Amino acid sequence: MLLQYAKDNEPFDRPDYFSMLKLDGIRLLVSNMDVLKLYTKNMDVTARFPELYSPPISKGTILDGELIVTDEKGHPDWEACMARFQSKKSKNQIQFCAFDILYFKGENVMGLPLEKRLELLEAELEETEFYTRMRVMTGSAVKLFDLVREAGLEGIVLKKRDSKYESRSQPCEPGGKAIRSWSWQKVINYAYSDVMITGYSKKDHNWLIGVPEGERIKPLGTMELGITSQLRKSVWPRLGRSIIGENKDFVFVDPLVSCRVKHRGYYKSGLMRLPVLEEVNS
To answer: What InterPro entries does the annotation carry (predicted)?
Structure first.
């Protein structure tokens, strides 16, 4: 079951919704059926995470949650989590944070209201060094999101207290498709920046972006999200008149066109994470 974006990316306080943190990690299913299996996006990743081989849950139980690695502040670190996911040599310590229970001792509980499933989860999961449970609040989403902004965390999630766990297939089924439901909504803590268009890719015409830094333009990577066909057409004449060079992959232009973008901060490399075009400045 996947999240929808909340309207206008704004939190709301309603007594029929739970609010909780959105953790910046990797979605993971922990299946302790006949044998332990770990899945992300229907891919078996059991061999990657031996720390999770002794789950403190009953046989026949499946949990949904987020796999995270925390930084020195205790905040989820997505890059460190991906490094741990991609290499067995990484020493980054992982933790699985459960936010739902799908099967309990062999019984399918996805049809129960979320409130009841969370009660089951709290009673079933004994927290350890590697397994923990998401804390939830009733309402209070606006206040929680203010705290998320202050701390620089990813965002929050709002879930209807009576929502069922919706799925087109059985959990962990190869090729299964998850459902995106309005019963679960996310509010992202975006940052906003003004950037310059410095070029575009020859293959898909995504824009290269950067920001002035002294006498140079610091590259921030490529941007593909939020660029409509109409916007490409409106900006193209200005880009076409300002070409200064190219290579086999990119065409480079004078940084004359400014854009407003929203994004999720920066990678350790300095590149912008997931920039989305908001508007082209006049």
So the answer is: ATP-dep_DNA_ligase (IPR050191), DNA_ligase_ATP-dep_cent (IPR012310)
CATH classification of the domain holding 147 = 3.30.470.30
Which tens digits make up the pLDDT trace of 14-49?
999 999 999 999 999 999 998 999 999 889 999 999
How far, CA to CA in Å, does 169 sit from each of 165, 177, 178? 11, 7, 8
Q: Cβ atoms within 10 A of the Cβ of 3, count?
A: 19
Catalytic residues: 22
One domain, residues 69 and 200? no
Question: Are residues 41 and 114 located together in one domain of the fold?
Answer: yes
* pLDDT range class, residue 243, cuts 50, 70, 90: very high
* CA-CA-CA-CA dihedral for 79, 83, 86, 88, to nearest 10: -160
Domain count, the chain: 2
Pairing of strands 2-5, 180-188: parallel
In this structure, the answer to whether residues 60 and 126 fall within a common structural domain is: yes
CB 213 within 8 A of CB 270: no
CA distance 213 to 215: 6
CA atoms within 13 A on the CB side of 215: 0
pTM, two decimals, is 0.89
235 lies in which domain range?
191-280
